[in-house]
Amino acid sequence: MKGKNATNRRMEIGTIARRALCLSTLAADHPTDQDPSVGTPVSRKDGAPGILRTGRCRNNRRSTQFHAGVLLMVLAAMFATSALAAQTTLRMDVKLVSVFVNVTDRNGAIVGGLARGDFAITEDGRAQQIAVFEKQAEMPLNLTLAIDTSGSVRKDMTEEAAAARRFAHAIVRPQDQMSVMQFATEVRALTPFTNKLAQIDRGLGQLRGDYATALYDAIYQGSERLGAKDGRKVLVVISDGDDTVKNTTYAQALEQALRNEVMIYCLIDVPIEASAGRDLGGEHAMITLAEQTGGKYFYVGAGGLDKAFAQVSDDLRTQYLLGYYPRNQEPGRVFHRIEVTVPRASTADFNVRHKTGYYADARPGEN
Q1: What is the per-residue pLDDT across 278-322, written as a single tens digit (0 to 9) for each?
Q2: Both 202 and 284 in a single domain?
Q3: Distance (Å, whole) CA 22 – CA 67
Q4: Which of 19, 65, 131, 232 is packed most tightly, with the most Cβ within 10 A?
């Protein structure tokens, strides 16, 4: 379509140029002292003689020169518009890659006050130029809260709902939006994206338990819904990590999160402390999901969910946004790996968290 439009634009410009040239030639070749009423004898359709009056447009040199000038100005404007359109199209074809970054020191304390020049970023090992740099304390937030209501954590459901209400009231601002979903045997949306706290409270009051756990279904669907939003997209998952439904795999859930640029924060709620009764594999999967997407994981410990939610809130309010236009990309790669560093500090001094990369091809369902 773009090629066809460009061809049509070139044909239009060529037609105008030829008309302008014709008018300029006529103005030069014909004198201006003829009677404009003089015409050429012709025969009408009814056989009667008639006069084709051509002197007025053919011989009026001043008028012809004026029209030629107008056409030339139109021609120049079209050339400028065509060039601008070409530049705009080229710019739009290069996708800005956004990377949200958190930096902590060796003690886990948040490192603020860093500037653009403190960061370096590479894609597939190739250095990139940072085109966008912002501190994200005030950037709007799109957040989905996904709560496990399966049998393994059902005894904590009342506590989960109460802590989630306090979290929503503390973190949601007028420019933010939150949705709530629960998952057990199935995934169920309780609240659409909204900043109305009363609506969020009502949704949290509708938690219902069941026995199975569709953890990866919840991550997949939550990421898909967040993908339609602009800005920061965060999925907060409360679970013990035990997935028993098996509709969606771990790999599918992770890919969907990365494709939709969703950061996953996992609050690992372990009802059974003894390792013999815990799903250690599920816990490790939740940890990896958080690390791969640039989020973070927290165990729900002595401070309960309130402390874990406060840690999530602090993390989200102290992010940096780095953006770059990819250069020197390796052809044929579907997934591009990203690395962000703070060169002036040793790797032992700072821990830099961000998503591991992004998919360059279309999202599922777009092809």
Answers
A1: 778 899 999 999 999 999 999 998 788 999 999 999 999 899 999
A2: yes
A3: 11
A4: 232
Report the pLDDT value the prediction gives residue 8, as an integer from 0 to 100. Answer: 52
CA angle 135, 340, 237 (to 5 degrees): 70
In the chain, the number of structural domains is 3
Q: With respect to residue 267, please indicate whether it lies within any of the assigned structural domains.
A: yes
The reply to whether 174 and 300 lie within a common domain is yes
Per-residue pLDDT reduced to its tens digit, 86-116: 444 333 346 899 999 999 999 999 998 999 9
In the chain, the percentage of residues whose pLDDT exceeds 70 is 69
Judge whether 266 lies within some domain.
yes
Mean pLDDT over 44-50 rounds to 41
The distance from CA 217 to its chain's CA centroid, rounded to whole angstroms, is 22
Phi first, then psi: what are they for 178, rounded to 5°? -130, 145
Provide CB contacts within 8 A for 190, sequence distance 6+.
180, 181, 182, 203, 204, 206, 207
Residue 366, domain member (yes or no): no
> Does 101 lie in the same domain as 8?
no
- Same-domain pairing of 191 and 72: no
Q: 242 and 183: one domain? A: yes
Q: Supply 83's token pair.
A: 């060039």
Q: Is the pLDDT of residue 23 over 60?
A: no
pLDDT digits (tens, 9 = 90+) for 113-137: 999 999 999 999 999 999 999 987 6
- Residue 153 confidence (pLDDT) above 80: no
Report the C-alpha gap between 238 and 164 in whole angstroms: 10
Residue 174 belongs to what domain range? 141-317
Phi/psi of residue 194, each to 5°? -160, 160
- Do the Cβ atoms of 254 and 243 come closer than 8 Å? no
CB atoms within 10 A of CB 253: 23
CA dist., res. 244 & res. 300, Å (int) = 21
